[in-house]
Amino acid sequence: MVQGDVLVPVQLTKAIHGQDAVLSALGHKRFFIPSTRLSADTRNIVAEMEKQGVKRLICITTMGIRDNRFRMGLYYTLFVIPFIVGFYFKDKVIQEKIIEDSTLDWTIVRPGQLTNGKKRGNIKHGAKQGHYIFTHTISRASVAAFMLGLLGDTSYLNKAVAITH
Predict the structure, then answer these.
(1) DSSP track, 71-125
(2) pTM value?
């Protein structure tokens, strides 16, 4: 594992150099302010991966967007997304489009509401996970384990997969 700062080009180049895959879990906490931070950083990662010939990208975005819209439950659909994280979710849509338009072998992981709980083995995954009424959660540790498991699995190659407990 190599760490690097996506905002420092030389560190990004060094972090990607010689790798077989990149797992991206970008995020920020500026929910009320318009931002293109996630899409811009993803554009940098994708460009550097394509430049260096690193093909495999596994990237976290979020449940509740695009073909998984409304599946974060009523609380998120009616309150959180439109009033708190709307700009963030719009940038996540752009982020996904950048990945899909790349030449990479990608998988987009869309977790439910993240928690700080322990890793659990009962991960539900598929294109239509989540619920229209109830908010489903998943621990960050379970998301990390799921992403690592995708390294040797092509089931969701060039697809987005929603995951919950």
Answers:
(1) TB-HHIIIIIHHHTSHHHHHHHHHHHHHHHTSSSEEEEEEESEEE-----S--EE
(2) 0.94
Select the more confidently predicted residue: 30 or 58: 58
What is Dmax (Cα atoms) for the chain?
A: 45
* DSSP run (H or E) holding 45: helix 37-52
Angle, in degrees to the nearest 10, between helices 37-52 and 9-16 = 50
- CB 27 within 8 Å of CB 84: no
List pLDDT tens digits, range 34-62. Answer: 889 999 999 999 999 999 999 999 999 99
Q: Which residues pair with 72 in a beta bridge?
A: 131
Residue 1's SS3 state is: coil
CA distances to 49, 82, 100, 125, 138 from 157, rounded to whole Å, are: 17, 31, 11, 14, 22
Q: What share of the chain is helix, strand, coil (3-state, %, to 5)?
A: 40, 20, 40
Q: What is the DSSP secondary structure assignment for residue 53, as one 8-state letter?
A: T
